[in-house]
Amino acid sequence: MIRHTVTFKLKPALDSAEISDFFSAAKKLANIPGVQLFECLKQVSKKNAFEYGLSMEFATEALYVQYSNHPDHIAFVQQYWLENIEDFLEIDYEPITGVK
Q1: Residue 60 to residues 3, 44, 64, 100: CA-CA distances in angstroms?
Q2: How far apart are CA 99 and CA 4, in angstroms?
Q3: Whole-number Å distance between alpha carbons of 3 and 16
Q4: How many beta carbons lie within 10 A of that of residue 35, not counting itself?
């Protein structure tokens, strides 16, 4: 299992309609085959400057790679991500197994 997470800060000049459009487009990523447990998140801790997050899971690494190369994901990155994100951190997790 792979848990793909991105935490990010939107560009400050965005108005509420642009922010809404961004998240509407992001939610469509959940329709890409292999995506499970997709969530759009608002960051609430004051310990960092990031504002939002996206999180999803994939049963296998192959499904994650397929998602990354899917035309809908590539289009989202080109049309929304690059235009609206000021800063981000991407983390991909695998569960730790065999720990007692």
Answers
A1: 10, 30, 7, 24
A2: 22
A3: 29
A4: 19
Distances in whole angstroms, Cα of residue 86 to Cα of each of 1, 10, 27, 82: 29, 5, 20, 9
Question: What is the distance between the alpha carbons of residues 64 and 92, in angstroms, rounded to a whole number?
Answer: 10
Each residue of 58-79: pLDDT tens digit?
999 999 999 999 999 999 999 9
The answer to pTM > 0.85 is: yes
Tokens of 59: 């049963």
Q: What is the pLDDT of residues 21-31, one digit of tens each?
A: 999 999 999 99
C-alpha 13 chain-centroid distance: 21
